[in-house]
């Protein structure tokens, strides 16, 4: 029910993903004011000069609804800013003369009219808008002062009170609707900006940045760092168009993003065809090494599945080198215009060497990671492998989840025993 209502609202006023805040506000205000003016035409039946007031309300209402349809269908609301404001001011000025002037109730509408105009203002200078509105209202008061005979008065005090009271209540309702519309749309924009920020930074880091305009760097005794790189990327990329290249990378990285999110790790960054993620931060935990290896296995399975599809279509394929290391690192946010959450330390360099020394299609881990995950995974010792600027490092290949921990239907997924042991680690961490 809620989704249906939201879809209907988006259909009426515009989708936040496709239409700007100002555009959606214009659509909303034009439609609401148009409908209210048409209803006002019907409600003016008891007033003197009923025919004129009826036509003014009806004509202005139809004009506003026409502008709504033009804006909604053609997406040119910014060209309708002044026609919309002139329609409102022309209507209010005419009502000033035909409905009691300053002692009537129509002058109340000049305040929400200015509020509407200010909300919808785009590139124009606000002081020009204010000057224009002040000039119109000052001109109307001046005409009434010097030419009182131009104002059509009420036939009785009772009519004046009824009209003034009705208009006052109507303006309150209109103002309330405007505030509600604005607050709803601002909430949508806030959620959009928060969502974009959370695509760049972890939630706790984003909150700290919003509250303090800076993030205190933090040292972590133990995190697991995962690096990947596409083997043969340059050679294959030379045979692809820019669109194919970016589309293929986007496909892989979107898949990696989903896997990372599933295992509650943090994506750190991508550099070209390289992908970097980490577990155990910003909130520390005791399961980060297991999470990283589960991610690594799922990454390789994702790549293998896509490789089969590409080969069946006689298309070039990429394969993945993947390395994981566990150790100390420092994390923090750098930059001012484009924030970046990053990690530094010797462990990061070691993880990078694990990747570059890895075997295509395998999950290559260090001794430090092996010591934390060997209970859960079948691992094969590769021996001491020469790593650039690191000398010889003990490396292991994670072959699978241990048989007694494998799901009976899918051996690449953990069973309930695995999950119980895993949850016990999480509980220990919380204690």
Task: Give an overview of the whole structure.
This protein has 431 residues and is of the alpha+beta class. The chain folds into two domains: 2-198, no CATH class; 215-430, Alpha-Beta Plaits (2-Layer Sandwich). The protein is built from 14 helices and eight strands. The protein has helices at residues 2-13, 21-43, 50-74, 81-98, 110-120, 126-146, 157-198, 203-212, 233-237, 242-262, 288-312, 346-356, 367-373, 416-430; strands at residues 218-231, 266-271, 274-279, 319-334, 340-344, 363-366, 377-387, 391-401. Strands 1, 2, 3, 4, 5, 6, 7 and 8 form an eight-stranded mixed sheet that branches. Helix 2 (21-43) runs antiparallel to helix 7 (157-198), helix 3 packs antiparallel against helix 4 and helix 5 packs antiparallel against helix 6. The longest helix has 42 residues, at 157-198. It comes from Leptospira ognonensis. It catalyses: ATP = 3',5'-cyclic AMP + diphosphate. Its EC number is 4.6.1.1.
Mean pLDDT: 83
Reading the helices and strands in chain order gives HHHHHHHHEHHEEHEEHEHEEH
CATH topology of the largest domain: Alpha-Beta Plaits
Distance between the termini: 41 Å
Structural class, please? alpha+beta
Name the CATH superfamily assignment of the largest domain.
Nucleotide cyclase, GGDEF domain
Describe the biggest sheet? 8 strands, mixed
Task: Report the top-level CATH class of the largest domain.
Answer: Alpha Beta
Q: Kindly give the count of domains.
A: 2
Tally of helical segments: 14
Low-confidence stretches: none
| Large-scale geometry | elongated
């Amino acid at each position: 029910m809620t989704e249906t209502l939201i879809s209907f609202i988006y259909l009426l006023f515009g989708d936040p993903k496709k239409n700007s805040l100002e555009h959606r506000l214009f659509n909303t205000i034009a439609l609401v004011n148009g409908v209210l003016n048409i209803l006002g035409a019907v409600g003016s039946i008891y007033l003197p000069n009923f025919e004129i007031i009826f036509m003014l309300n009806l004509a202005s209402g139809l004009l506003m609804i026409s502008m709504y349809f033009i804006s909604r269908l053609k997406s040119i609301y910014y060209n309708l800013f002044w026609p919309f404001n002139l329609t409102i001011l022309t209507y209010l000025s005419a009502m000033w003369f035909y409905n009691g002037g300053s002692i009537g109730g129509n002058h109340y509408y000049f305040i929400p009219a200015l509020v509407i105009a200010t909300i919808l203002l785009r590139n124009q200078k606000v002081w020009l808008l204010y000057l224009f509105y002040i000039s119109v209202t000052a001109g109307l008061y001046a005409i009434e002062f010097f030419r009182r005979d131009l104002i059509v008065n009420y036939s009785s005090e009772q009519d004046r009170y009824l009209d003034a009271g009705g208009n006052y209540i109507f303006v309150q309702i209109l103002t309330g609707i405007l505030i509600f519309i604005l607050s709803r749309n601002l909430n949508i924009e806030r959620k959009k900006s928060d969502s974009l920020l959370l695509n760049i930074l972890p939630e706790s880091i984003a909150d700290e940045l919003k509250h303090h305009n800076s993030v205190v760097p933090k040292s972590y005794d133990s995190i697991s760092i995962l690096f990947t790189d596409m083997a043969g990327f340059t050679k294959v990329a030379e045979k692809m168009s820019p669109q194919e290249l970016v589309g293929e990378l986007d496909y892989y990285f979107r898949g990696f993003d989903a896997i990372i999110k599933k295992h509650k790790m943090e994506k750190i960054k991508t550099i070209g065809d390289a992908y970097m993620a980490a577990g155990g931060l910003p909130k520390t935990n005791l399961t980060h090494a297991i999470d990283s290896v589960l991610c690594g296995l799922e990454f390789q399975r994702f790549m293998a599945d896509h490789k089969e599809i590409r080969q069946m279509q006689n298309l070039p394929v990429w394969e993945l080198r993947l390395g994981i290391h566990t150790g100390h690192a420092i994390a923090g946010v750098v930059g001012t215009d484009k924030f970046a959450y990053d990690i530094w330390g010797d462990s990061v360099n070691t993880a990078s060497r694990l990747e570059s020394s890895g075997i295509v299609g395998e999950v290559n881990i260090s001794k430090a990671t092996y010591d934390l995950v060997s209970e859960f995974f079948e691992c094969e010792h590769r021996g001491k492998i020469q790593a650039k600027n690191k000398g010889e490092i003990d490396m292991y290949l994670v072959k699978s989840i241990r048989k007694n921990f494998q799901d009976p239907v899918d051996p690449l997924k953990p069973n309930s025993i695995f999950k119980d042991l895993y949850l016990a680690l999480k509980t220990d961490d919380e204690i």
